[in-house]
Amino acid sequence: MPATAEDLKNIPRHIAIIMDGNGRWAKERGLPRTEGHRQGAETVRRVTQACGDLGVEFLTLYAFSAENWKRPKREVDALMKLLEQFLRIKTPEMHEQNIRLQAIGRLHDLPESCQQQLHRSIESLSQNTGLTLILALSYGGREEIIDGVKSLIESVERGHLDKGMIDTEVFSKHLYTRYYPDPDLLIRTSGEMRLSNFLLWQLSYTEFYITDRLWPDFAKEDLEDAVRAFGRRHRRFGAL
Ligand code: FPP
């Protein structure tokens, strides 16, 4: 069903997506896994544009997890190359769409040329005022919390922060996501019911939407279905 004005009343401010199923998509077609990732990158372009059109403010995509380094080197290399290529080729298009780019994760783990391209793209899109696309790269929720704890300890040791002042709000300011609101809606494709170390802290009150659709097949209509389902949820944040 195409989105109607009624559906568009309650657009999530921040959508986070676990993009899963690239490998299965390729396997179903007798293609190499990397072909699934290539199609997956095309979906990234499509969904980013669709989120911008809907008026979503932040879109966080789980593009490469801290655990993904354990995949065969050939697949890791192909993913890094794909990411670099995507950024190089799609940055002008993102600029035309007024998209701003950010990244979270242990970015220094990425190959040097990938880091450079990422920083070039972030810089050249930094003045844009539309959708903020946040790529989670070499990202792990537990690792982020550990990095946050280290950063907190450092602040206390330097005398910038009193231990007694630490609360959830202060801690949030020591996470990679300190500049962004928590996600309102989490989408996971290809049917798996798990978080896979994604945004563990930030998803505390997020609405979940799991679809069987594989990421390369995920279309604008699927995004609209998710947003429509979100619109029907009653969020209480633990209250009545
Ligand atoms: C999960 O599919 C997907 C990934 C591990 C990486 C996501 C990467 C992309 C969508 C392409 C590149 C990204 C950008 C931002 C250009 P899977 O391989 O785990 O699939 P499977 O569970 O079916 O094997």
Short descriptors:
single chain, alpha/beta, Undecaprenyl pyrophosphate synthetase, six-stranded parallel sheet, 7 helices, 14% strand, globular, binds farnesyl diphosphate
Descriptive account of the structure:
It is a single chain. The chain is an alpha/beta fold and 240 residues long. It has a single domain (7-140, 182-231), classed as 3-Layer(aba) Sandwich (Undecaprenyl pyrophosphate synthetase), CATH 3.40.1180.10. It has helices spanning 22-28, 33-54, 73-96, 112-124, 141-157, 168-172, 220-232; strands at 14-18, 58-65, 100-104, 132-139, 185-188, 207-210. The chain has a 6-stranded parallel β-sheet with strand order 3-4-2-1-5-6, with helices on both faces. The longest helix has 24 residues, at 73-96. It is globular, with a radius of gyration of 18 Å. Residues 19-24, 37, 40-41, 44, 61, 63-64, 68, 82-83, 86, 135, 190, 215 line the site of farnesyl diphosphate (FPP). Residues 19-24, 37, 40-41, 44, 61, 63-64, 68, 82-83, 86, 135, 190, 215 line the site of farnesyl diphosphate.
